[in-house]
Amino acid sequence: MAKKIAVLVGSLRKESFNRKIANELSRLSSDGFDLEIIEIGNLPLYSEDLDQSPPQEWTDFRQKIKNSDGILVVSPEYNRTIPGALKNAIDVGSRPYGSSVWPGKPGAVVTSSISSLGGLAANHHIRQAFVFIDVPLMQQPEAYIGNSSQIWNDDGTAVEETQKFLKDWMGAYEKWVNGFSKS
Ligand SMILES: Cc1cc2nc3c(=O)[nH]c(=O)nc-3n(C[C@H](O)[C@H](O)[C@H](O)COP(=O)(O)O)c2cc1C
């Protein structure tokens, strides 16, 4: 059976370059991998008060993460750190205390930016949170995609150099996931 990878896109923008990169990773992945973007824009902001009777959106999100074999984040950097919607999703999945859905899911992070820096700061801030929520993260190869507005062909696919990078990177992540049994 194909490995199910939950993909969290840190941008809520309709024409998001990060969403396009996530779609390219899905297209370039092997047959044994099924990438699904799990939407995070509908999740109410986390409050422990609400967890007395959790919103349906939280319950559905938590279940989708539980059902997955791995977590792939594709995100922009906002003000040199993690976009709020992505951080909220991380928090929602981590609670109630003792019932976090994250531990043991093999993860990886891709960041991109319209600047040349490729979202490096956000990439490492996401990694920092993932250490605490016990997601075993692929360390290498790293993925910082710069100039994200300029890497597209007219048909919506990434330019050749970027496609090659994404395919090789995805292959490394597939190996990483295959090294884990489902938790
Ligand atoms: C609130 C906000 C903060 C941003 N801060 C950064 C930043 O710190 N570093 C950076 O490289 N780009 C920053 N950007 C620019 C993003 O790289 C750019 O908007 C990018 O297209 C966002 O990703 P998306 O296309 O997936 O929505 C910021 C954009 C927004 C909307």
Number of separate helices: 5
Write the element-wise H/E pattern from the N-terminal end onward: EHEHEHEHEH
Main beta-sheet annotation: 5 strands, parallel
Helicity, in percent? 25-40%
Distance N to C terminus: 16 Å
Instruction: Please provide the count of β strands.
Output: 5
Pfam families: FMN_red
GO molecular function, one term: FMN binding
Protein name: NADPH-dependent oxidoreductase
InterPro entries: Flavoprotein-like_sf (IPR029039), FMN_Rdtase-like_dom (IPR005025), NAD(P)H-dep_reductase (IPR050712)
Q: Can you offer a commentary on this structure?
A:
The chain has 183 residues and is α/β, with parallel strands linked by helices. The chain has a single domain, classed as Rossmann fold. It contains five helices and five strands. The chain has helices at 17-28, 56-66, 84-94, 120-132, 160-178; strands spanning 3-9, 33-37, 70-75, 107-112, 144-145. It has a five-stranded parallel beta sheet, with helices on both faces. α1 packs across α5 (160-178). Flavin mononucleotide (FMN) binds next to α1.
Short structural summary:
It contains five helices and five strands. With 183 residues, the chain is of the alpha/beta class. It has a single domain, classed as Flavodoxin domain (Rossmann fold, 3-Layer(aba) Sandwich), CATH 3.40.50.360.
